[in-house]
């Protein structure tokens, strides 16, 4: 069988509202996931055993890596003994709030389901995805904007695309999700805005007055502990972005721009500071 090469795209969160904490310790949230044009590439090659290598030596290539965990989960679920050699060309920064590991895990599930001729249903793959991570179902099942609630795994396809240029910046700070949940400032008494209706008004009617409602509850604590991340947001706004925010638990920050030349200017300023960046065109989706 010929090697198969697949792109795994990142996401940003347009609004991230932490609404409560369950008795088991998990937090409930509401957010809008949006894809961006920043991706890893995973190559799958025939092998008698299950193995992995990665271009980023800082990442594990054993079962501590979500790719390997996803492959083993599918093996066990399907009673499959086939092997595969996985090569991960890692471009999405980790500890950035961009969902890179979750996206990679979803790509492994979806691709090996065909590569091994497992033919598991989407419902079966979803069950495996939820066990791997809260963001994994989004990357497995969606290509554009999606409204998420619960722990992030209850998804509604909004059939929308963001009509803006998006500049995403990684300020070279790795922030763990565990740290973010430990340090964020709870606002459980708040009545959350209807993010689903607001993003529909934004994308379909151009209603920008709603953008202030798209808050990220991790942002205040992250900015207090990592002032360099806060500065990146301000730099994007100073460069012409009409909305900027932390993505996920950080440290990546993104900004929306009307004009490509303003987005390119912001990109250049960020790269001069040696930050890793990406730019996403209006209407982008993860369809391949």
From TrEMBL:
Recorded catalytic activity of this chain's protein: 4-CDP-2-C-methyl-D-erythritol + ATP = 4-CDP-2-C-methyl-D-erythritol 2-phosphate + ADP + H(+)
Function recorded in the entry: Catalyzes the phosphorylation of the position 2 hydroxy group of 4-diphosphocytidyl-2C-methyl-D-erythritol.
Gene giving rise to this polypeptide: ispE
Keyword Magnesium: no
Binding site for ATP: 93-103
Keyword Calcium (UniProt): no
EC number(s) reported in the record: 2.7.1.148
HAMAP family attached to this UniProt entry: IspE
Pathway annotation: Isoprenoid biosynthesis; isopentenyl diphosphate biosynthesis via DXP pathway; isopentenyl diphosphate from 1-deoxy-D-xylulose 5-phosphate: step 3/6
Record-annotated active site: 11, 135
Ranges for domain GHMP kinase C-terminal: 216-271
Family: Belongs to the GHMP kinase family. IspE subfamily.
Family matches, as PANTHER family: 4-DIPHOSPHOCYTIDYL-2-C-METHYL-D-ERYTHRITOL KINASE, CHLOROPLASTIC
Organism encoding this protein: Chlorobium limicola
Protein keywords: ATP-binding, Isoprene biosynthesis, Kinase, Nucleotide-binding, Transferase
GHMP kinase N-terminal domain location: 65-139
GO biological process: isopentenyl diphosphate biosynthetic process, methylerythritol 4-phosphate pathway; terpenoid biosynthetic process
InterPro entries: GHMP_kinase_C_dom, GHMP_kinase_C_sf, GHMP_kinase_N_dom, IspE, Ribosomal_Su5_D2-typ_SF, Ribsml_uS5_D2-typ_fold_subgr
Recorded GO MF terms: 4-(cytidine 5'-diphospho)-2-C-methyl-D-erythritol kinase activity; ATP binding
Protein name: 4-diphosphocytidyl-2-C-methyl-D-erythritol kinase
